[in-house]
Amino acid sequence: MKRYFNPENERIQYVVCETLNGHVPTMLNIVTGQKLAITPQTAAHYEIALPDYPLAQSCALSTAERYMERLAALNGLIEIE
After folding, report:
1. Contact 67, 51 (CB under 8 A)
2. pTM
3. What is the DSSP letter of 19?
4. Is pLDDT above 90 for 58?
5. Is residue 79's pLDDT more than 80?
6. What three-state secondary structure class fits 45?
7. What is the model's pLDDT at position 77?
8. Which of the ends of the chain has fewer CB neighbours closer than 10 A, N or C?
9. Is 4 in contact with 25 (CB distance < 8 Å)?
């Protein structure tokens, strides 16, 4: 799976994680290992722009990855090779 980071805050990575019901875009703190689902509430708190269309919390991997690609483009995130 692709991983992204914000060059202004390299401690946080953005990745799609597997859940019991599917997949969800997630913020990962690489220092502490804590994960946080990207929801409208967390996006507002961390000042992250979300794509115009809503995303179910648990969805297919391909849907979650497309959403993450759009989120990365909106926020200037860089893909980790």
Report:
1. yes
2. 0.87
3. -
4. no
5. yes
6. helix
7. 96
8. C
9. no
3-state secondary structure of 58: coil
pLDDT confidence tier of residue 49, bands split at 50, 70 and 90? very high
CA angle 13, 54, 62 (to 5 degrees): 60
Q: How far apart are CA 47 and CA 34, in angstroms?
A: 18
Tokens read off for 77: 């995130």
Cβ–Cβ contacts within 10 Å for residue 16, how many? Answer: 24
d(CA 38, CA 79) in angstroms, rounded, equals: 17
40 burial (CB, 10 Å; 0-12 / 13-18 / 19+) is exposed
Query: Cβ distance 14 to 25 under 8 Å?
Result: yes
